[in-house]
């Protein structure tokens, strides 16, 4: 039996975690042979609800679960954590401007970044799901000077998976036939879902779909999919977000076998993007590390879309510059 790994989840009484915690506990993230210790963080008023989640986790009698910690103290939740999934965030309230939202979340993620710095495993892998995810990840990273910025990532895998399905359905193929999908930039409506390098069942996607569909249906549909879910379900994406968080962490930890996936990671200047911002890139993962796929040719359309989403991330960073530690 392997030694257990410690997995911290924040916002653990929320709707994404209600799927996420159970799937991690059943071995979907790290495999059916990897025991886990769940370290669940909530705010104090939600501790009663979190206790209910813990009761249900216990009632599942998951063979892989070695222990469950439920706490409202980030230092306890992140103690020796090997993986940290930062899901909890402050939602936009009535009358709240975008800047207020960024600041409210900056306050949360600066505290959590410091708690990770002081308590987590030195190899911790951090995934920020809570919105605005890219900039929240930047804030957490800036407040964790003893950890490598590369340990801080944000989630665009849900956008990636959404794009895979849209293209597979349009071409009458299966998602597993689609290769090299890319989401560039921010997890927001400015993200750029790029099919220029995609192949579907071995054929270039750009030859299988009309340009008009790509520009005027596919791109906006992927960008606006979150809003469409809210309209239909009356609540935001939860099980699909949890599933994508599991995909992101599994691939980062266990590798992608050469397949390209999208992860929001600290820019190193690749493709002319401002270094430091957390920007979604095409990556491959191996041996617990991710690497940006280099050398992809970009046309003017792509360059302009990539710049627009980069500009938004620069603006978000400027709004919280004073909190970057
Ligand atoms: P919920 O409101 O159901 O749950 C969030 C939970 O976080 C609540 O239980 C709350 O008490 C807790 N929380 C708030 N502040 C906290 C703190 N400082 N420490 C610990 N816990 C805290 O939201 P849910 O639907 O689960 O969504 C969570 C976040 O994911 C939201 O910010 C949402 O916008 C974001 N999403 C991100 C996606 C992505 O692709 N990156 C997609 C799905 C989702 O919209």
DSSP helix count? 11
- Catalogue the unreliable spans: none
Strand order of the largest sheet: 3-2-1-4-5-6
The major pleated sheet works out as: 6 strands, parallel
Q: Could you tell me the number of beta strands?
A: 14
Q: Could you give the order of the helices and strands?
A: EHEHEHEHEHEHEEEEEHHHHEEEH
Bound molecules: ligand NAX
Output the structural class: alpha/beta
- The Cα radius of gyration reads 19 Å
Q: Tell me, what's the shape?
A: globular
How much helix is in the residues? 40-55%
pLDDT average, as an integer?
Answer: 97
Family: Belongs to the LDH/MDH superfamily. MDH type 2 family.
Domain Lactate/malate dehydrogenase C-terminal: 156-321
GO molecular function, one term: L-malate dehydrogenase (NAD+) activity
Pfam families: Ldh_1_C (PF02866), Ldh_1_N (PF00056)
Mind sketching the topology for me?
Layout lengths: L4 E6 L4 H11 L10 E6 L5 H13 L5 E7 L2 H4 L5 E4 L11 H22 L5 E4 L4 H10 L9 E3 L2 H15 L6 E2 L2 E3 L7 E3 L4 E2 L2 E2 H4 L2 H13 L1 H9 L5 H16 L6 E6 L11 E9 L2 E4 L7 H21 L5
Q: Could you describe the 3D structure shown?
A:
With 325 residues, the chain is an alpha/beta fold. It has helices spanning 15-25, 47-59, 74-77, 98-119, 133-142, 157-171, 205-208, 211-223, 225-233, 239-254, 300-320; strands at 5-10, 36-41, 65-71, 83-86, 125-128, 152-154, 178-179, 182-184, 192-194, 199-200, 203-204, 261-266, 278-286, 289-292. The strands form four sheets. Strands 3-2-1-4-5-6 form a six-stranded parallel beta sheet. A three-stranded antiparallel beta sheet has the order 7-10-11. Helix 1 (15-25) crosses helix 10 (239-254), helix 4 packs across helix 5 (133-142) and helix 5 (133-142) packs across helix 11. It is globular. 45% of the residues are buried. The structure holds ligand NAX. Ligand NAX binds at residues 10-11, 13-17, 41-43, 46, 87-91, 108, 129-131, 133, 155, 158, 187, 226, 236-238, 241. This is Malate dehydrogenase. NAD(+) binds at residues 11-17, 105, 112, 129-131. Its EC number is 1.1.1.37.
């Amino acid at each position: 039996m392997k030694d257990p790994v410690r997995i911290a989840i924040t916002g653990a009484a929320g709707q994404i975690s209600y799927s996420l915690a159970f799937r991690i506990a059943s071995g979907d993230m790290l495999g059916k042979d990897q025991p886990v210790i769940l370290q669940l963080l909530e705010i104090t008023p939600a501790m009663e609800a979190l206790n209910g989640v813990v009761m249900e986790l216990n009632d599942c009698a998951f063979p892989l679960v070695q222990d469950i910690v439920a706490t409202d103290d980030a230092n306890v939740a992140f103690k020796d954590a090997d993986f940290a999934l930062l899901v909890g965030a402050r939602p936009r309230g009535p009358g709240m401007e975008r800047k207020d939202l960024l600041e409210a979340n900056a306050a949360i993620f600066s505290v959590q970044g410091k708690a990770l710095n002081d308590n987590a495993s030195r190899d911790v892998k951090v995934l920020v799901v809570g919105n605005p995810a890219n900039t929240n990840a930047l804030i957490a990273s800036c407040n964790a000077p003893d950890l490598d910025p590369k340990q801080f990532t944000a989630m665009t895998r849900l956008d990636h998976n959404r794009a895979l399905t849209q293209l597979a359905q349009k071409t009458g193929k299966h998602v597993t036939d689609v290769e090299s999908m890319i989401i560039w930039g921010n997890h927001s409506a400015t993200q750029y879902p790029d099919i220029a390098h995609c192949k579907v069942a071995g054929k270039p996607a750009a030859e299988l779909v009309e340009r008009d569909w790509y520009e005027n249906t596919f791109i906006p549909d992927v960008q606006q999919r979150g809003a469409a879910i809210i309209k239909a379900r009356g609540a935001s994406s939860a099980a699909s977000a949890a599933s994508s968080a599991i995909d992101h962490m599994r691939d980062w930890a266990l590798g992608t076998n050469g397949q390209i996936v999208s992860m929001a990671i600290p820019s190193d200047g690749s493709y002319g993007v401002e270094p430091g911002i957390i920007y979604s890139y095409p990556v491959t993962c191996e041996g617990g590390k991710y690497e940006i796929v280099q050398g992809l040719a970009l046309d003017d359309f792509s360059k302009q879309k990539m710049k627009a989403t980069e500009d938004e991330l620069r603006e978000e960073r400027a709004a919280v510059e004073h909190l970057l530690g």
